[in-house]
Design brief:
Oligomer: heterodimer
CATH superfamily of the largest domain in chain A: Immunoglobulins
Number of helices of chain A: 0
CATH architecture of the largest domain in chain A: Sandwich
Helix content of chain B: 10-25%
Largest interface: A-B, 39 and 45 residues
Largest sheet of chain B: 4 strands, antiparallel
Number of strands of chain B: 28
Structural class of chain A: mainly beta
């Protein structure tokens, strides 16, 4: 089958170089080392190398296959491809459309020329991983959005692999997970069934890249997913705390707002701060009203009550810091016009 | 002897005098207490509701000297059921479409009949500051609030009698039980007696189902991800998707009976709306300041982009229809991070209603409310009655409750 059967070919290597999977086939089917990405199965002895990009093809994706050989002069050879037994073109590279999750696509390539002839086969089995994440930062009760990472946050990641064997998905608990943070393997958090990890968020404005490799020990199927997560600023919002309705989370105060009552309480919400409650002891609230410092209730420092006595405008300022975290900082400023009946213009804080 | 008698008489007089003085002292003190109590408001009758419905809406309207339903023309297809914030609502079964809703301020349940414009208060059990509520088709009520310690309280109840349908009927007590504290996400099956909610555990979160009393708990799924949003659309299954954020990958799944997850959709800033009658799906994405809406006629079909820019949170399927729904779409999206800003109450939209046909991936203008009301309607939690005649929604700008007559 091969013009170069010999000891030097009695190896099989699976090399990942820049996202390209390189696979060589050994005579007699023996191979070493264990293939790292077993969605490529080996069909026999060959001097040919078939590289696949991407290395971990996903369902219904297109994969680019390239024939390579350290021994054959491919540029001076005839190269013919077939997919699932049907002719699929010629040349060193072809593109193959894969099927749904778990559907095997068999590809073979044959080379003939003055430097020799050879052939190789691979089987592509698309798999995928859903890589879910969230931060443990603060969002208020009933908030419908995602908590995003801020300074000091922890990030939870959860991998849901989809790998099919004999027509059904392999149970996630039996798979081998290898987690990498910015290229470094997290050995302590990797292993069989280790489908989730918790990692600290990057420093402010930085980002972390997390990769998870999943391998099915039973048949060598593998998949990979990665995500880059950026750490951002906390966001400070101010809401009316109505004695009748509670905190009006649906309507934050804009730069200019109106209040229907002369005495109104306001609640600050530090979105994405690394606390479990706005009144966390680690946060330092510095309130000002019309430029003067105002002391809030020590038990409830995220709220202030302003009794305007009569009509007037209050310029509310708030600076939020965390003495133990120099990267944590948030500021806000709001102008509120107090009147018996909200005047036109601006946004009424009572809705 | 006479001296002894005189002494005894003197003692008796002094004793009587002392008792008399003590009596007047106590009476004076009681008057002072009564005066102080009166000044504190004790003993004063609780203010009665002003309107026939006995709603905070009518109370506020009468106090402010306005009308309870002043904002739309009589011929309008719109009805503002409650001007004051409501916590949630649900359509009822029966031949005449009726809507039950929960007042945010009192936790009272009221019933509105769109065909007559009639509103009746059903319960008088005070549960103040209800932030979130839902009402199932059989009248069961879920009310959620926050206690003074910041603990999330979830109450599952039913009106003692759900027969109050006239203004003269006496409101009932809302009876029920408190579910576990700090439930982060909860949903009610609109048809069956089933609750689905998350239970925080030391290292993960469990999604469980219970009956309305919080009993017969069954653990369905556990995950390290805690910020799920749950949708039980009435077909006995549960859809869960990650809490969305702009430009952040999200995943939506249907939880299958064997505990595994079937991927429904994925995308940046993902919002989804499953269909109870079919495997059709509406989902939206928010990426780079742009909103996109997609429909999928079945689980095996490819998603098709729709011509309107909105989020699935603003859509509702017509009950019993496998492919027809209605969506509200903002006339203008100004924010580069719409979802985050919208959920945080930083922005509000002015919406137009469209009919969506998932089988054709088409949209048709249904109704522009600007001709009937000056209010900007930022549609939230839309829901269509079982007969398909009315669409109820909350205006996210002020949490008021509205009903749109779909058919003209």
């Amino acid at each position: 089958m091969s013009a170069y059967n010999g000891d030097m070919l009695r190896t099989l290597t699976a090399l990942l170089c820049g996202g390209i999977l390189l696979v060589a086939f050994a005579p007699g089917g023996a191979f070493w080392p264990e293939p790292a990405f077993a969605q490529v199965n080996f069909g026999g002895a060959s001097a040919l190398i078939i590289s696949a990009a991407p290395a971990h093809p996903t369902p219904n994706s297109t994969v680019e296959l390239t024939a390579e050989s350290p021994l054959l002069d491919l540029a001076d050879s005839d190269i013919e491809w077939s997919v699932n037994g049907k002719s699929a073109g010629s040349g060193e590279t072809i593109r193959v459309q894969l099927g749904p999750l778990g559907q095997e696509t068999d590809v073979s390539v044959s080379v003939s020329g003055t430097s020799g002839s050879d052939s190789a086969q691979i089987s592509l089995v698309p798999s995928s991983i859903d890589l879910l994440w969230e931060a443990d930062s603060y969002v208020p009760p009933f908030y419908l959005g995602r908590a995003l990472p801020g300074s000091g946050s922890m990030i939870r990641l959860f991998a849901i692999p989809h790998m099919v064997q004999a027509g059904s998905e392999i149970a996630p608990s039996g798979l081998q997970y290898t987690w990498k943070l910015n290229g470094a393997t997290l050995k302590a958090q990797s292993g069989i069934g280790e489908s989730s990890i918790v990692v600290p968020a990057a420093i402010l404005y930085g980002s972390d890249t997390i990769i998870v490799d999943v391998v099915a020990p039973s048949n060598g199927l593998s998949a990979e997913a990665s995500i880059s997560i950026r750490t951002g600023d906390p966001y400070l919002a101010l809401y009316d705390d109505s004695p009748l309705f509670g905190i009006m989370y649906h309507q934050s105060l804009s730069g200019e707002s109106n209040a229907d009552e002369s005495e109104t309480s306001f609640a600050a919400v530090p979105y994405f701060a690394e606390v479990s409650t706005p009144n966390d002891q680690s946060l330092a609230y510095a309130w000002t009203v019309n430029g003067s410092s105002v002391n809030a209730d020590p038990k409830d420092p995220s709220e202030i009550t302003i009794d305007a006595q009569s009509q007037g405008v209050a310029q509310i300022g708030l600076s939020l810091s965390n003495p133990s975290d120099p990267f944590f900082s948030a500021q806000g400023s709001w102008q509120v016009a107090f009147s018996a009946n909200a005047a036109d213009g601006g946004t009424s804080v009572f809705h | 002897m006479s001296l002894v008698r005189l002494v005894l008489i003197a003692i008796a007089v002094l004793a009587l005098g002392g008792l008399l003085g003590w009596y007047y002292f106590l009476q004076g003190a009681q008057q002072e207490v009564n005066t102080q109590d009166a000044s504190r408001g004790y003993g004063v009758q609780a203010p009665s509701f002003e309107g026939s419905a006995g709603s905070t809406n009518e109370n506020v309207a009468s106090t402010l000297g306005g009308s309870a339903v002043p904002t739309t023309a009589p011929t309008s297809r719109l009805w503002e059921v409650s001007q004051v914030p409501v916590a949630g609502f649900g359509w009822q079964g029966g031949s005449v479409p009726t809507l039950r809703f929960v007042e945010r301020s009192s936790g009272n349940v009221l019933q509105a009949t769109p065909s007559s414009g009639n509103v009746v208060r059903l319960t008088d059990t005070l549960r103040p500051e209800i932030y979130q509520a839902s009402v199932t088709r059989d009248g069961s009520v879920l009310e959620r609030s926050i206690d003074q310690n910041g603990t999330l309280i979830t109450f599952a109840g039913v009106a003692a009698s759900s027969s109050a349908t006239t203004a003269t009927s006496s409101p009932d007590t809302l009876l029920g039980s408190q579910l576990p504290q700090n439930i982060r996400a909860v949903t009610t099956d609109p048809i069956s007696d089933t609750l689905y909610f998350t239970v925080s555990q030391p290292s993960d979160v469990a999604i469980v189902s219970t009956n309305w009393a919080g009993q017969k708990e069954k653990q369905l799924f556990t995950s390290a991800i805690t910020q799920w949003r749950l949708i039980a659309d009435g077909d006995g299954t549960l859809v869960l998707f990650q809490a969305p954020a702009d430009n952040v990958q999200g995943y939506a799944y249907r939880l299958q009976k064997n505990g595994t997850l079937l991927l429904l959709a994925q995308g940046l800033g993902l919002t989804v709306l499953p269909n109870a009658s079919s495997s059709a799906l509406i989902f939206g994405t928010s990426q780079g300041g742009s909103l996109s809406l997609f429909s999928q006629s079945s689980s095996s079909a490819s998603p098709q982009a729709l011509s309107i820019q909105t989020v699935a949170d603003k859509c509702a399927w017509v009950p019993g229809s496998g492919s027809i729904g209605y969506c509200a779409a903002p006339k203008q999206v100004t924010s580069q991070q719409f979802l985050d800003d919208w959920y945080q109450g930083n922005i509000h939209t002015s919406d137009t209603f469209y009919e969506v046909d998932a089988s054709e991936a088409s949209t048709t203008l249904l109704y522009d409310p600007s001709g009937d009301t000056n209010a900007s309607l930022d549609v939230e939690s839309p829901s269509i009655d079982p007969s398909g005649q009315y669409l109820a929604f909350i205006n996210a700008a002020d949490q008021s409750l509205w009903v749109l007559h779909i058919t003209q």
